[in-house]
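One such shown below:
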Amino acid sequence: MDGRAMRYFLIFAANLIAGGVLLNAQNVNDVFTFSQSPLSGSARFVAMGGAFQALGGDPSGVISNPAGSAIYLNGEFQGTLFYDNKNTKSIYGNTATTMTGDESDVFSLGQASFIFPLESMTYSQNNRSNKFTIGIFYSGRNYYKNDFVVNGENTIGIDSYFVNHANGSRIKLDELILRKDEDLSGRYGDLGEDVGYSAQQSLLGFQSYLIESIEDTPNSTEYVSALSEYQQVPLEQEFIYNQSGINHQMTLNFAFELQNRYYFGANINIDWFRYKEISDYLETGHDVNSPYSEINFVNNFSTLGIGYSFQIGALAKLSDFLRVGLTYETPKWIDFEDETSQFVQNEIVVNDELLDPIDPNILNIYPPHTLRIAAKYSLGAAFVFGQRGLISVDYSLQPLQNSKFSDPEFPNSDAFSVTNQLINTYFQTHSILRVGGEIQLSRFSLRGGYFSESSPFANFSNEPNQGFTAGLGYKFGPHQINAAMIVDSRTTNHQFYTNYYDSQGNPFSYQLEKKPFGLFLSYHFKFL
């Protein structure tokens, strides 16, 4: 990075928000990205579809219901390795694009845990005892590695994105024209500090000859597409996405047993997020009578975040046959720090020369902001058939439409009001049904499971995302080896850009169909 770019690097860190301007680096897609945790964890947990709300006795089950650690009689260690292949297909309009190859495959540590039951305290009456346990857990909750391409046609091009930003910000034409001896980086940086993100997008659109002012006067604030005089034709659009990163979680667990029938627990969760996305948009197929041939819009986004949440759970043995459990997880507060950079390249001839890329060569560094992911409610029941096996059922609800962005330094600011309104209309309550079973055959265990998730997106009609799991286990002395596999099918909806929408105000979006295949292998050691 050159000296000029570094200068704005420092300025942006302190002064990017001015007058409560909305920061658009984050958008509604982030609520989905950072709230999701695909089925993963220990091999036994995965093999039974994650239905452990009323069971306990498994490290990933403790992450589901913190009361579950009080089931343990001995100290235990467990670690899990996993492999995941995503098998992604994108759908945009009537065009489907399937990704091949192993670019998005993941092989990593899925979880590791230590659980320590403490000495029991015995009552004299009925010789009933209380037991206290503590545990520490690591979970690789989500791996964001995913490369995919979205192809399709649209009569509304990327120029409308820049028009919407310019008209929405009411920026004056005079502010989009470079002064004598002023370069693009200087103006881009000044607009980011003084006005905000939309003003920067307006500058990129104007300087790349994609938008123009209705009136050629310095105070004009109304803009139209520079392509509007040409015939609208189906434009060929290609979006190339490269996503990477991870969500780690560390959990500290406390639980106790009461009268050998009732179990209560709490988890303190700390999440670390690292996410990076490069999106490369290419638009071709313009009217042959226009001077436009190819438009390229590249955005780089990266963020680091740390989040906190708490869980309280209870589990009860109503009889030797029936167990029930329930858990409440507080909203997850995640503090993010974002960085963005971008440029536009318009293949157009200006003054007998090909227009250079409109690249500010600036790294926008945004002040910290908070995303609050909605609370989650879970309950479950398990039917235990002695030493022969069991069947377990879980159900959870999470009203994602209640998620919100906020500014930690100015909690009453309306800087994110528009984005929060979009979240409220774009999302709905997300529900998950999980069913699992296990059969004990001496030292061997056979397991199977099923799960079904409703779409978290409102006004988006699709079949529930669902998957099947299977696995087996083998015990020998204090050791146990467990293996599991998962076959999943899920469809999700994603916006291209916050201000890129049709004439009715509906954001242009694409679907991702994923049919991941996962393998899990766990080693379990019991301290006798």
